[in-house]
Specification:
elongated; two-stranded antiparallel sheet; mainly alpha; two-stranded antiparallel ribbon; 4 strands
């Protein structure tokens, strides 16, 4: 009598296809963090609150996106008199640079979780986006050098959210405009 043989065939192709699909999703997806265009009422297009205070011409309003840009990179020839210099107070690039290692470690851990089917690509990117958003907001709250000029501090005495010495915070609009958005390949 011949011995009984039990044969089990495992088709790993489906698992392999799933891993390839997840890699493609990761390759085609990204997260944007900062003051984003098209982010609704809190996005880059919103008017800076100072426009109403100064009675600005509606056609020449300064948007919060422009304020963020001028502070992130600095600007000369700004203001109504065109003789104002805004010093560079990087709050987005510097936050990313200062936290690059931690963010890379988080990214690597999330990639592993994606491949193990513990999280989706979208959830992983939301996690990274939220973390960087909070890091940027914390940096603004902690204050970004250089300190304000005395003339700026004098203006902030009249109603600033955080007081005259706080850089990048007046009404809180810039702080509230820091957000993130996940973009998947099928949404581009």
């Amino acid at each position: 009598m011949a011995p009984k043989v039990k044969v089990i065939i495992k088709d790993k192709r489906r698992q392999f296809d799933d891993i390839i699909k997840r890699y493609r999703q990761m390759d085609e997806a990204f997260v944007e963090v900062g003051v984003l265009k098209g982010a609704g009422k809190r996005g880059a297009e919103q008017d800076h609150p100072g426009n109403k205070k100064r009675g600005e011409d509606p056609k020449k309003k300064t948007t919060i996106g422009e304020i963020a840009f001028y502070n992130e990179f600095g600007a000369t020839g700004a203001g109504r008199s065109r003789n104002v210099t805004i010093p560079e107070r990087s709050f987005i690039r510097s936050t990313f640079d200062e936290n690059k290692r931690d963010l890379a470690r988080d990214r690597d851990g999330l990639v592993k979780q994606i491949l193990q089917r513990k999280v989706t690509v979208k959830t992983a990117l939301r996690t990274l986006g939220f973390k960087l958003q909070q890091l940027i907001k914390n940096k603004i709250n902690d204050g970004v050098p250089p300190p304000n000029e005395p003339s700026t501090n004098a203006k902030k005495m009249r109603g600033s959210l955080r007081g005259p010495g706080a850089t990048l915070i007046d009404s809180g609009t810039l702080l509230g405009a820091i957000t993130y958005r996940v973009r998947m390949g099928d949404e581009l």
